[in-house]
Amino acid sequence: MISQLFFKSFNYPALSLIFVFVYTICCSTTFLAICNKKKSLKIKKQKIVKSASNSKKKQKTTYYVDGARAIGMLRECEKRCEVTIEKARHNYVRVMDKAYEDARREIAEFKKKREEQHQKYVIRLQKEELDYAAILENKNRAKLREIDKMVTKNRDNVIDDIMKVVLKIQPIMHHNVPDLRKAKQIKSSSTQLISKQPSQTFSEKNQQRAKILPIVRKITYKEPSISSESSTSSSTSSSISSELSIREQNKSRQKSQKENNRKKQNNISKRKNN
């Protein structure tokens, strides 16, 4: 029982000190008991003393103790106490070292767990940032698609307006080009004739110019013929049909490209989420 308590006291330093103190008290009591027994064995004689008051006999004992032996026993007890104290000190140091090692191990495990939690938190933050970036990218792409649709719609409307204006202006331009060429030729020939006649006076030159100008004006403002109108209308219709076919082809290509881009973006976002 005492040995079990002694070994259990290693985990509690204060208990070990209490145990040493109790052990020293027990040793001292045993030592005193032994001394008393020795004294009782070394009784030399008994004296009988008669009192004056009564006739009863009283026994008085005297004890003789060996001082050198008692000092030796005390020294042995001191040595034993020192040995037990030294053992208790060694046990206390060993227990403290063990407790220090356990505390250091627990601190290392706690640091390791904290680092793992920090790494998990960092990974979660990075994943959330990537998800947020992907969401923003998808939103921006959706906005860009809407802007592209609006731009293409406005561009198509502008192109339609320009084509309408061109179709309105085109027949007039086709009819006026040859008339302008003729007017330029007549004007140049008339200026050459005027320059070749140096003998003419200034008034004669003005008269000739007055005769030529109405002719030029008539040619420039000449109305287009029916055949030219039919040819220009056929050419404009063919050009319009070709333009419309080209525009339809471009629209179909743009739609296919947008669908392909959307599929690629969806695949990329799925890979990031995985």
TrEMBL record:
Coiled-coil portions: 93-145
Compositional bias segments (type: Basic residues): 263-274
Similarity comment: family membership: Belongs to the V-ATPase G subunit family.
Transmembrane segments: 12-35
Database matches in Pfam families: V-ATPase_G
Species name: Meloidogyne enterolobii (Root-knot nematode worm)
Compositionally skewed regions (Low complexity) per UniProt: 225-243
Name by which UniProt lists this protein: Uncharacterized protein
One GO molecular-function entry: proton-transporting ATPase activity, rotational mechanism
Bias-annotated ranges (Polar residues): 188-205
Keyword rRNA processing: no
Feature: compositional bias, Basic and acidic residues: 245-262
A Gene Ontology term for the protein's cellular component: vacuolar proton-transporting V-type ATPase complex
